[in-house]
Amino acid sequence: MKEIGKVLRIGIIGTGAIGSDHARRINHVLTGARITALTDVHQPSAETVRDTIAPDARIFNSGEELISSAEIDAVLVTSLGATHEAYVLQSIAAGKPCFCEKPLAHTSEGAKRVVDAETAYGKRLVQVGFMRRFDRGYIALKNAVRHIGSPVMIHAAHRNQSVPGTYTTPMAIHETLIHEIDVLRWLLEDDYVSARVVFPRSAARSHSQLKDPQIVLLETANGVVIDVEIFVNCHYGYDIQCEIVGEDGVARLPEPSAVEMRVNGTRQNSILTDWKDRFVDSYDVELQAFIRSASSGVPGGPSAWDGYVAAITADACVRAQESNGAEVRIDLPPRPSLYD
Ligand code: NAP
Known about the structure:
By secondary structure, the chain is of the alpha/beta class. It is about 35% helix and about 20% strand. Helix 1 links the parallel strand 1 and strand 2. NADP nicotinamide-adenine-dinucleotide phosphate binds next to helix 1.
């Protein structure tokens, strides 16, 4: 583990949209770390990040070489989801702290292999990129829960202005709902026991591979019932809603701040359209937390176990999409004590 007070040397695997954005924040926004290594299957993309953001970084031919290099203290895995598991497993084998963008692995079996490897290693090294836990609004909402009595219901919505034509119905779970799956169980400190999916009539921007919108109904071990509307071609903006109904009151996720205008006989304010703008501060806070825990050796943030639970829940939700409204049980294995 790196000495406290020294700059953490980070290597990034995958320098696409989120990898290059994380490189920018590590070198230009955050403190305590520096990008010293980069790799991407598309080498010109790593070279662009080096030339524009990380001039000290060496470019490696592969993720494997980068992980085993003595020139890095910690690993950021921001390549495509299907490649995450192998890089995270190699980081654990090398004893290096690893920040892995969601998903932790492409399958729940893969996520289990990561949990098993980390448990066998005996120390938490992995932080999964569920950045909403670091969002100021969600943190305020979690603090508010204790004032509204025991939660009984959550009403939530995840609406995207639009998605590419290649986006399909199961992606609404694995790419979109996955953030609610993690943040809602974190808010409630509770686990899911069942899932159902209900489809209203498909809206006009749906197609043969995408039924949109849909409503996912989750029930927790404590009997809280959650409805999450997913509407990925809602047209009007990027809109994240969450309302927790307790026995004594209701708490709502704050809206992003926006100037209210009164003009031409109307009262109006804008709604964000790009998801990157909605959680830009949370990405900063989550990566600063990773730098802190990788430097100090004190683990924090969403764990490999959280990534595994999210994967099991997502698989159940996809089965529920295919089950004509029938309930699908969610059975979690016992949690290893490493994650208590
Ligand atoms: P992207 O723009 O496609 O970037 C991924 C990069 O990884 C591409 O340059 C790709 O090269 C490269 N790559 C693919 N396989 C690789 C391998 N085996 N080794 C090294 N590099 C490899 O995708 P993105 O939008 O940045 O997303 C990356 C990951 O972050 C995804 O898992 C995504 O779900 C996650 N993500 C999370 C959030 C969040 O809110 N937390 C937001 C965005 C993305 P090629 O293009 O040549 O394949």
